[in-house]
């Protein structure tokens, strides 16, 4: 097992035994970066497997594969005696073209980063190691403003960070993240001016501890970074980090700096700059984390090679599966793949690769590189592990792998910043097809220029008879997928997300057709590749109820019938009436594309403008399944947006509507369909990264239902009184109360319920002392007007009652208790009315459902509600 000293035994075995013999009460906390891809501090070609980078795993689209890889990685490091995984990376890549993270993060969609981050975290925990989310508040949007002595800076506002970069951290904390590394970056925006985040009480204590409610271990970024050590000094930085709230101060490299930090710490204690109470807080947190991940028995007796030998076969299979699932063919316009379809056996294939350094984030690679640069002979271990093999060596092996798979010759040469040389031109003319490899071409601009030059040469090839004939060119990005993701002139473009030997073996199989690549670009990289410009502009007309109602019913049935078998449609019990509110407080405009000769509808789009909130809503858009991909949806969408933009007082646009409650947003329970829909809306201008999960829920079998044990007693201790009221006489206090919540459609739902006293009621929660309202919820039955706009009520097929639109006062501390109380009383009332089913038609979808699940509820439909500022909307041509 190659440790950091290059020997076969890890040095931390001796460290733990030394600590034990010295009388330490608990083992050491020993962690490392083992992020996979190019970031592996632990390496061994026999016992330690190589897995895709974080972005490579996101490209598989599988949280299950991500979990299994994380678990396998953690099992390997745990077998070697380590107990802290310095991961996952929870950074959201909002500034992809100018930052150091690259493929170490899963992408630029906060929800996707969050989902994969939690999958990684759960895998690590399953293997018994502690987890560390990094790099708080996010390295994904850094601006580099000068030299190495200038700290990279986050310029986003706290509000912007909260909507984007902090989402994965917030969700991971909720799921039990053990520790968080706070970065050493600066923060500069309105009301926030921080030189180093990990030294700032405003970041660590206020934002992370108080706002995000994190009570785990906070770890500082390495204080040896040039910007920090030169500007403040390691000793002073140590004191500042501890007082800011850090529990562990990180110093990675220099023994001198470590001594300086200890001296600074001692001086801080002696001068009462650091209190003993502050130290006890951190000690308590660190001991709690150690108790979960280590013991003397585990620390002194790591299973080592014996366990790794047993794990090797299954982990090797998993590695191959993960890499094969990650390789992404972004474009193949001219159907060049597999190469066997376009090349004769005797044809020559040209491979052009850049001169790159070893995979830069590997500690071992860095050490070996330094040895080589100091004149040391290249050690044998350099050949033994793909994890630390130089880029040139890895690419040479790629050439050999390509050659082994075919009878024709593979020509291989490298390229540099010197550009296309005569030898390159000769080889290009000679070869029948060309593969160019790029590695972070956005930061190594010579690679971009070289590739574009070769592409131009390939486009200008002619046959002996003078006929123009484009020479086949395949571009492979082996690190960041951003290299040519947006460049449509590169007709065949493949991404591997790292350039380890294992990744490139999977690439060779894709190039030769051993399997079809199934990976997909993560986040909004693929979303931002605009759909091809439409050549058809359909005539869009305003919906006419008398003329089009019957046609809409037929269209709805066609959409439901055309749904993927086994998937339930949100439109299942909807009719044309489900979209027609006829509410004086709501301006509704609906649009159709139709055949004027047959009166058949090909597509429909429903929009509403809620005057009370200034929200323009697109609540549904659907097209006849037999006429999709003809730009009907584009034409409907753009007409609808133009109308909403012209509404006086419009403040924001929203995908998904509470009223009517058919589509609460983009449906997300449909597997691959979810990704297609998100991409489609993103291409039309919606920022799907800023979405809000919502859902409808259902509880069945009310006839035998009873409340969970203890829930009634907990409600009694909540300190509120509940009642059920009907009719407009109670409108004043209720409508005043719901003004504390600015969600779209709330006021309209409550007004409809208050005006329909025979079929709707309001359950209220009041403070006993003054009668003020702290919570409300709408109760309705199947004969109510409100039920007409909730198709799932009819779709149940049984007598059902509905609960809608809970509003809890922001001043209430026990939000979940009060919410459960309102819903519990609603369920009782619905059961008393003889109903066997209860529908919750609009709930936050990313909340903790344990309480509602205990009450008997299951999710019926999942959605992503997407909102954006109307003032910043940019029309995308159809």
Automatic annotation (TrEMBL):
This is Glycoside hydrolase family 3 N-terminal domain-containing protein. It comes from Zasmidium cellare (Wine cellar mold). Keywords: Glycoprotein, Glycosidase, Hydrolase. Residues 20-288 form the Glycoside hydrolase family 3 N-terminal domain. Belongs to the glycosyl hydrolase 3 family. SUPFAM superfamilies: (Trans)glycosidases (SSF51445), Acyl-CoA N-acyltransferases (Nat) (SSF55729). InterPro entries: Acyl_CoA_acyltransferase, GH, Glyco_hydro_3_C_sf, Glyco_hydro_3_N, Glyco_hydro_3_N_sf, NagZ_Beta-hexosaminidase.
């Amino acid at each position: 097992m190659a440790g950091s000293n290059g020997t076969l035994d890890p040095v931390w075995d001796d460290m733990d035994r030394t600590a034990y013999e010295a009388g330490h009460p608990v083992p050491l906390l020993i962690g490392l970066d083992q992020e996979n891809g190019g970031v592996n501090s632990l390496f061994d070609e026999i016992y330690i497997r190589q897995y895709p980078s974080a972005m490579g795993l996101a490209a598989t689209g599988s949280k299950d594969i991500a979990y299994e890889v994380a678990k396998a990685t953690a099992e390997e490091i745990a077998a070697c005696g380590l107990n802290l995984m310095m991961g996952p990376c929870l950074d959201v890549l909002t500034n992809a073209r100018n930052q150091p993270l690259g493929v170490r993060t899963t992408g630029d969609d906060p929800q996707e980063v969050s989902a994969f981050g939690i999958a990684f975290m759960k895998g690590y925990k399953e293997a018994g190691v502690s987890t560390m989310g990094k790099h708080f508040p996010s390295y994904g949007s850094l601006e580099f403003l000068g030299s190495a002595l200038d700290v990279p800076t986050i310029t986003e506002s706290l509000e912007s960070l909260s909507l984007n970069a902090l989402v994965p951290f917030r969700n991971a904390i909720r799921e039990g993240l053990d520790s968080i590394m706070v970065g050493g970056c600066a923060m500069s925006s309105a009301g926030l001016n921080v030189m180093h985040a990990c030294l700032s009480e405003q970041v660590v204590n206020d934002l992370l501890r108080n706002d995000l409610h994190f009570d785990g271990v906070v770890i500082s970024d390495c204080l040896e970074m040039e910007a920090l050590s030169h500007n403040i000094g390691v000793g002073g930085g140590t004191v500042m980090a501890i007082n800011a709230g850090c529990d562990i101060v990180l110093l990675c490299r220099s023994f001198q700096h470590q001594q300086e930090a200890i001296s600074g710490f001692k001086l801080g204690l002696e001068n009462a700059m650091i209190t003993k109470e502050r130290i006890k807080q951190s000690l308590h947190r660190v001991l709690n984390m150690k108790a979960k991940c280590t013991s003397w028995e585990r620390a002194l007796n790591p299973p080592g090679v014996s366990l790794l030998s047993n794990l090797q076969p299954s982990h090797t299979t998993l590695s191959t599966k993960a890499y094969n699932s990650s390789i992404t063919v972004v474009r193949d316009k001219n159907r060049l793949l597999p190469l066997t379809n376009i090349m004769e056996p005797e044809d020559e294939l040209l491979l052009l690769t850049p001169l790159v350094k070893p995979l830069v984030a590997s500690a071992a690679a860095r050490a070996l590189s330094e040895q080589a640069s100091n004149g040391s002979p290249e050690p044998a271990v350099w050949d033994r592990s793909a994890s630390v093999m130089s880029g040139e060596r890895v690419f040479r092996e790629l050439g050999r792998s390509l050659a082994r798979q075919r009878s024709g010759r593979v020509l291989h040469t490298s390229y540099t910043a010197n550009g296309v040389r005569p030898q390159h031109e000769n080889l290009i003319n000679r070869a029948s097809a060309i593969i160019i490899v790029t590695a972070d071409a956005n930061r190594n601009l010579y690679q971009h220029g070289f590739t574009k030059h070769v592409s131009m040469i390939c486009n200008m090839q002619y046959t002996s008879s003078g006929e123009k004939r484009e020479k086949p060119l395949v571009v492979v990005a082996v690190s960041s997928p951003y290299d040519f993701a947006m460049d449509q002139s590169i007709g065949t473009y493949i991404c591997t997300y790292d350039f380890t030997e294992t990744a490139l073996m999977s690439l060779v199989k894709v190039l030769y057709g051993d399997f079809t690549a199934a990976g997909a670009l993560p986040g909004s990289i693929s979303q931002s590749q605009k759909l091809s410009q439409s050549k058809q502009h359909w005539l869009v007309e305003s919906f006419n109820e008398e003329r089009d109602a019957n046609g809409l019913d037929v269209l709805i049935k066609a959409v439901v019938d055309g749904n993927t078998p086994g998937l339930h449609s949100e439109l299942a019990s909807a009719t044309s009436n489900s979209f027609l509110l006829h509410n004086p407080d709501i301006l509704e405009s609906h649009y159709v594309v139709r055949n004027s000769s047959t009166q058949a509808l090909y597509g429909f789009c429903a929009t509403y403008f809620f005057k009370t909130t200034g929200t323009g809503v697109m609540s549904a858009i659907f097209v006849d399944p037999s006429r999709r991909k003809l730009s009907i949806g584009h034409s409907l969408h753009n007409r609808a947006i133009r109308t909403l933009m012209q509404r006086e007082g419009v403040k924001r646009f929203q995908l998904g509507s509470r009223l009517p409650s058919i589509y609460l947003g983009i449906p997300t329970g449909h597997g691959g369909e979810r990704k297609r829909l998100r991409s489609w809306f993103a291409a039309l201008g919606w920022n799907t990264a800023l979405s809000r999960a919502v859902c409808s829920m259902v509880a069945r079998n009310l006839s035998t239902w009873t409340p969970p044990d203890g829930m009634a007693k907990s409600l009694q201790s909540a300190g509120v009184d509940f009642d059920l009221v009907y009719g407009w006489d109670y409108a004043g206090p209720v409508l005043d109360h719901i003004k504390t919540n600015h969600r779209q459609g709330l006021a309209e739902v409550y007004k409809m319920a208050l005006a329909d006293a025979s079929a709707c009621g309001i359950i209220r929660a009041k403070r006993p002392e003054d009668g003020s309202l702290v919570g409300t919820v709408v109760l309705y039955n199947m004969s109510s007007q409100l039920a007409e706009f909730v198709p799932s009520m009819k779709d149940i097929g049984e007598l059902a009652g509905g609960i809608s639109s809970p509003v809890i006062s922001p001043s209430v501390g026990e939000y979940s208790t009060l919410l459960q109380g309102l819903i519990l009383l609603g369920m009782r009332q619905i059961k008393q009315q003889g109903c066997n089913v209860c529908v919750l038609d609009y709930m936050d979808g990313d909340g903790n459902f344990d309480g509602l699940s205990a009450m008997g509820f299951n999710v019926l439909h999942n959605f992503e509600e997407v909102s954006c500022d109307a003032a910043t909307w940019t029309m995308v041509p159809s």
